[in-house]
Amino acid sequence: MVELGWRExxxxxxxxxxxxxxxxxxxxxxxxxxxxxxxRFSEGGAPWVGFRITPARARHEVVxxxxxxxxxxxxxxxxxxxxLRVFLATRLWLAGMERDIEINLADRRSMRFPMLLGxxxxxxxxxxxxxxxxxxxxxxxxxxxxxA
Length: 148
Known about the structure:
Elements: E1 2-4, E2 7-12, E3 17-25, E4 31-34, E5 37-43, E6 46-53, E7 63-68, E8 71-76, E9 82-94, E10 97-106, E11 115-118, H1 119-122, E12 126-128
Parallel strand pairs: 1-12, 3-11, 4-10
Antiparallel strand pairs: 2-3, 4-11, 5-6, 6-7, 8-9, 9-10
Protein name: ATP-dependent zinc protease
GO molecular function, one term: peptidase activity
Pfam family, one: Zn_protease
C-alpha cells in the first residue's frame, strides 16, 4: 500500500482536471468535488451533469466538464446538514496510481481544499499518516497507465 499524507495533489484526467489539492479524510465515506456551477442535460436519453470548476486558488484556470450521472444520494456534511447530491464515476490519479472512484459534486467554496478524498476512494490501495502532508507532490503531466 502507498502512504498518503492528510493532504495531497490529485488529478482527475477523465474530467480534464490536471491538478487539484485534496484533503484526505478517512472520516468521510464519500469523496466530494467543489463545483462553481452545475447543470443537467440528457445525452442519448441518459441523464448527464455539466459543471464548472476553478481548480487553482489563483482563479485563472477554469475547467468545464461533463459526465453521466451515476446516482443521486443524500449526503450529511460535517455540519450535520443533509443535501441531495449528484454522484459520478471518474478516474483518480494519485501517487502514480490510477483508480476509478465515485465523487459527488458539492459547494465547497468555504473550504480550504476543492476536493475531499473519502475512505471509499482510498480503500485497499492507500494508508494515511495524518502527521504528514503532500508526500507525492504535484502530479506531473498525466500519462495514462494500466487500470488499477
